[in-house]
């Protein structure tokens, strides 16, 4: 018997000192559920299980199946509320990023009493109309890239009854194919846009500096970034170095890719730019077998760059050394030990307020 897909999407979580908040998306509505042992009554087993999961998240093991299963178990408790408060809305016309905007936000109160979970209350979140930081306004802090309204960006979709499940990646602006990446926080985009501005101003071609290129910035209220648009890259096969490299990869290709990645990192450093999240998932292989460095947002991935050198040239060089071994050494521990191809980031989508 085929299991029906869950009517929600776990988007991530934020952690506090002794609790975490799960962000759940349902038909364009966002539900934030706080999970805290303070709300567990006469439930020692539930508290112990919570602590096990909380330790996994704090140890950056939040991509494990145990964490995601736990989050889904909590979300399932609120299914009746999801159905009541977040009904589906069919869409038949052209779909844009504006149509995918958050329709509303709710705060969920989760409780466990005598080992039994309860959806205690779900209340609507009302955002205060506070002034937005001018230093985050993309209209004033940069002039290199065009500013676009979400309604200007077309999103392909196939199912008009569940278009909110669409995860926009390839989008179109006036018929031009682009890659879309939503901003978890408008602040996060400021540094990344500055990096791409330096690349643009340098005048270096993609042959001279093999990195992704920014096309424009999608903004919301107050000019705060909601997402970034990149030039579309046609990739080979599975797309990333992580998925393409194998024992049968010719030596000539390995040498080419290693050289291109080295040159890209050196070129970035010359421009005063740190790559940050050095890993093979952040290297695309295009249809001409070129290795292209992507994702200049920053951050680190466990096993590739030590936390104490995160965001530094030293960190990039550390990751680069491991990357070269990953390319040439078929017995590389990082090659053999790969599990999930993508880390789940422990961040919540704060752009909902924009």
TrEMBL record:
InterPro entries xref list: Kinase-like_dom_sf, Prot_kinase_dom
Annotated ranges, domain Protein kinase: 95-354
MF terms (GO), sorted A to Z: ATP binding; protein kinase activity
Record-given protein name: Protein kinase domain-containing protein
UniProt source species: Purpureocillium lilacinum
Lineage: Eukaryota, Fungi, Dikarya, Ascomycota, Pezizomycotina
């Amino acid at each position: 018997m085929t299991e029906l897909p869950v009517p929600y999407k776990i988007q991530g979580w934020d952690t506090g000192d002794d609790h975490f908040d799960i962000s759940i998306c349902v038909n364009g509505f966002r539900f934030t559920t706080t999970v805290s042992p303070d709300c567990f009554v006469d439930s020692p087993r539930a508290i112990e299980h919570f602590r096990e999961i909380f330790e996994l998240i704090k140890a950056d093991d939040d991509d494990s199946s145990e964490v995601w299963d736990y989050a889904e178990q909590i979300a399932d408790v609120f299914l009746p509320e999801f159905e009541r408060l977040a009904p589906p809305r069919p869409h038949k016309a052209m779909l844009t990023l504006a149509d995918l905007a958050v329709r509303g936000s709710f705060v969920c109160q989760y409780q466990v009493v005598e080992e039994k979970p309860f959806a205690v209350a779900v209340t609507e979140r009302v955002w205060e109309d506070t002034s937005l930081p001018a230093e985050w306004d993309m209209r004033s802090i940069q002039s290199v890239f065009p500013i676009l309204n979400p309604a200007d960006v077309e999103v392909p979709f196939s199912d008009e009854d569940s278009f909110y499940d669409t995860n926009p990646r390839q989008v179109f602006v006036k018929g031009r194919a682009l890659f879309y990446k939503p901003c978890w926080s408008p602040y996060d985009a400021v540094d990344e846009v500055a990096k791409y501005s330096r690349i643009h101003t340098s005048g270096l071609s993609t042959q001279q500096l093999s990195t992704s290129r920014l096309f424009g910035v999608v903004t919301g209220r107050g000019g705060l970034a909601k997402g970034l648009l990149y030039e579309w890259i046609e990739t080979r096969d599975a797309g990333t170095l992580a998925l393409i490299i194998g024992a049968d990869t010719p030596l000539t290709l390995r040498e080419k890719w290693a050289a291109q990645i080295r040159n890209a990192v050196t070129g970035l450093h010359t421009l005063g730019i740190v790559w940050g999240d050095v890993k093979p998932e952040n290297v695309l292989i295009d249809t001409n077998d070129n290795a292209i460095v992507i994702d200049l947002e920053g951050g680190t991935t466990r096993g590739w760059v030590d936390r104490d050198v995160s965001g530094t040239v030293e960190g990039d060089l550390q990751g680069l050394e491991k990357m070269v071994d990953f390319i040439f050494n078929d017995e590389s521990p990082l090659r053999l030990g790969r599990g999930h191809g993508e880390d789940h980031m422990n961040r919540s989508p704060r752009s909902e307020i924009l």
